Amino acid sequence: MLRAGLSRGVIELRQSFTNGGDLWNHLFWPVLMLGVTFYLRDETFGESGLLLGTLALPGILGMNVAVGMIVMSQHLTADREDGTLLRVKATPNGMPGYLLGKIVTVSGSLIADLAIFLVPGMLLVDGLAVTGADAWLTLLWVLALGLLAALPVGAVLGSAFTSVRAQGLLTLPTLALIGISGIFYPLTSLPEWLQWTAQVFPFYWLGLGMRSALLPHRAVTVEIGDSWRHLETVGVLGAWAVLGLAVAPIVLRRMARHESGSRVAQRRERALQRVG
User: Fold this and answer.
1) Burial class, 127, CB count within 10 angstroms (exposed 0-12 / middle 13-18 / buried 19+)
2) Which domain holds residue 108?
3) How far, in Å, are 71, 76, 160, 267 from residue 271 at the CA level?
4) What is the pLDDT of residues 42-82, one digit of tens each?
5) If both were cysteines, with which of 37, 158, 243, 276 could 73 make a disulfide (CB 3.0 to 4.6 Å apart)?
6) Of the candidates 63, 1, 69, which has an alpha carbon nearest to the alpha carbon of residue 243?
7) pLDDT tens-digit series, residues 109-120
8) What string of DSSP letters covers 80-134?
9) Dihedral over Cα of 103, 76, 233, 143: its sign
10) Phi and psi at residue 44, in whole multiples of 5°?
């Protein structure tokens, strides 16, 4: 099971970089975010003297990790609609191997996208502090914990929708949460009730963790409580990870039990009617 899942994930990951459409998806978002960072590079935040582009770059890294839950849900929803999950269910240990493969695929894709954004981004903006080993160590544990918090939740979300079209409804609330999570502008500039709302979700904490890794210590003055709050970051992301890991297997088993050939045929027929 472990070997099959890893093999499946590596094959899908390799295909995503050799297929024209998937390769475009890998490049589009990082290039778009590089454009935003370039636009903000000379703007300053209040009287702090800190450049908005410098503040936004690590926040965008955190946002991309959190968006992994949406990517994961898209994979599961698409495979459920076209009957892939039904075929997986019919094979011994098929579902665990499938999920492991998807985790490898999505994690690998996200890490590659982060590298595509981070390497040129470090050349576009000034003021990053990435010369010490502590910076990269912090970035790695935030990245690992963030993936652990995001991907199981994505699996739960993917189980909740029966079509790719319905899954698209997640886009607007996700963009709204990103907008209030201090990704492009420090959270302290927003009303207090929005600050509390943002701190419930992983977007803010991933951005904060990435900023603590890549920004100089003086940048902490624009954060809540003038602190990087590493313990709180571990606590909130850890809580999301525990919740996702506890709920995802239950939801996925229940979803798999309800899959059948007739349900897949119905979804295909509805999809063909929409195309027609």
Assistant:
1) middle
2) 2-275
3) 21, 16, 18, 6
4) 888 777 778 888 888 998 898 889 888 888 888 888 877 77
5) 158
6) 69
7) 999 999 999 999
8) HHTTHHHHHHTSTTHHHHHHHHHHHHHHHHHHHHHHHHHHHHHHH-S-----SHH
9) positive
10) -110, 155
Paired tokens of 153: 């939740």
Q: What is the CA radius of gyration of the chain?
A: 20
Total domains in the chain come to 1
SS3 239: helix
Cβ atoms within 10 Å, residue 169: 10
Rounded to two decimals, the pTM is: 0.86
Distance of alpha carbon 275 from the chain centroid: 30
More reliable by pLDDT, 9 or 61: 61
Give the H or E element holding residue 186: none
Mean pLDDT for the chain overall: 83
Whether 25 contacts 67, CB under 8 Å:
no
Q: Which long-range contacts (CB under 8 A, 24 or more apart) does 219-226 make?
A: 219/48, 219/50, 219/54, 219/55, 219/127, 221/48, 222/45, 222/46, 222/48, 222/50, 222/55, 222/186, 222/188, 223/186, 223/187, 223/188, 224/187, 224/188, 224/195
- Report how far residue 172's alpha carbon sits from residue 151's, in angstroms, rounded to the nearest whole number: 19
